[in-house]
Write a structure and sequence with these properties.
The chain is of the alpha/beta class. It folds into 2 domains: 2-112 and 285-296, Rossmann fold (3-Layer(aba) Sandwich); 114-280, Dihydrodipicolinate Reductase, domain 2 (2-Layer Sandwich). Helices cover 32% and strands 21% of the residues. The chain has helices at 12-22, 40-49, 59-68, 99-105, 114-129, 150-158, 181-188, 222-232, 282-296, and strands at residues 2-7, 27-30, 52-55, 75-78, 90-91, 108-110, 139-145, 170-171, 195-201, 207-214, 238-240, 261-267, 271-278. A 7-stranded mixed β-sheet has the order 8-9-7-10-13-12-11. α5 crosses α8. The longest helix is centred in the middle third of the chain and has 16 residues, at 114-129. It is globular and about 60 Å long. It starts with a strand and ends in an 11-residue tail after the last helix.
């Protein structure tokens, strides 16, 4: 039986991981009492006693506990932003070329950001294949449900007396310093950050990430992009879907409650939109974390996932 400790199990991601793993007969959760959850020594002991530890903490707290647990032979999966571009950490998007074997050997795995997962899924294979140049100046907009904002945002949106402004979509990260930008650039091998426009709306979960392109941005035809995606995304978790729309609409919440991701290409030979759809709490957070745990333990990676 696999012993698992979740450090920070009261946040949105931690609660979801805990709920999912509690239902698995092959997992034994190591839990701490209310007082012990804030005790550094108790947390370190729990990390060292576990086979896998999930860090669902703020960035600074994640960095601190990782330094203190440097000697632990535990597989640590950090769901924060703290280690996504850090040397010695494996970036946990399993569908990237060579990523599964790296994850399976790694003791330090950085779980991807939700928006970043959608962008990287679309862009990284195209840069790798030379379809998009590394010096490309890309843009991206991403629609997400409010659950990605954590407890306070969830409470604000679900308050019966919520502000009228919360009824409409809201763009944020407007200073172009969003915390996902470093991983979006580095993992894709780009020379420049994309112009990134994240948008939160008044539905619970689900994400739609869009990268618009013109023909001049590409070193190949649109059909070649589709072929690249077909070759890369043919597994159970991430897949390419030809023209997957709903009567001319694409709904950002279509994958709510699931752990898979769908990649599609729309438009024409002159103007193209690359689209990924998934759940910000699924493949964008706890679903990816559990997938990474499965790979690290040499289990079928879809174990316990909702596909």
């Amino acid at each position: 039986m696999t012993k698992v400790f979740i450090d920070g199990s009261s946040g949105t991601t931690g609660l979801n991981v805990r709920t999912r793993l509690a239902a698995r007969p092959d997992v034994l959760l190591i839990t701490l009492g209310e007082a012990e959850r804030k005790d550094e020594r108790a947390r370190l002991d729990a990390i060292r006693a576990s086979d896998v530890a999930f860090l669902c903490l703020p960035d600074d707290a994640a960095r601190e506990i990782v330094l203190l647990a440097a000697d632990a032979d535990t597989v640590i999966i950090d769901t924060s932003t703290a280690h996504r571009v850090s040397p010695g950490w494996t970036y946990g998007f399993a569908e990237l070329e060579g990523a599964r074997s790296e994850i399976s050997r790694s003791k330090r795995i950085a779980n991807p950001g939700c928006h970043a997962s959608g962008f990287i899924a679309l862009v990284a294979p195209l840069v790798k294949a030379g379809a998009i140049g590394r010096g490309a100046r890309l843009s991206c907009f991403s629609l997400t449900g409010y659950s990605g904002g954590g407890k306070k945002m969830i409470a604000d949106y679900e308050d019966p007396a919520r502000k009228d402004a919360l009824v409409s979509p809201a763009m944020y990260g407007i200073a172009q310093k969003h915390k996902h930008l470093p991983e979006m650039r580095q993992v894709c091998g780009l020379e420049h950050d994309p112009v990134f426009c994240p948008i939160v709306s008044s539905y619970y979960s689900g994400m739609e990430v869009v990268v618009p392109l013109c023909a001049d941005d590409l070193n190949c035809a649109v059909d070649e992009i589709k072929d690249i995606y077909r070759n890369v995304y043919n597994g159970k978790v991430v897949r390419y879907a030809e023209g997957s729309d709903e009567n001319g609409f694409l709904y950002a919440g279509a994958f709510s409650g699931r752990d898979d991701m769908e990649i599609s290409v729309f438009g024409n030979e002159e103007r193209i939109t690359l689209v990924s759809r998934f759940d910000n709490l699924g493949k964008g957070a706890c679903g990816a974390a559990i997938q990474n745990m499965n790979i690290a333990l040499s289990l079928p990676e879809e174990t316990g996932l909702i596909l």
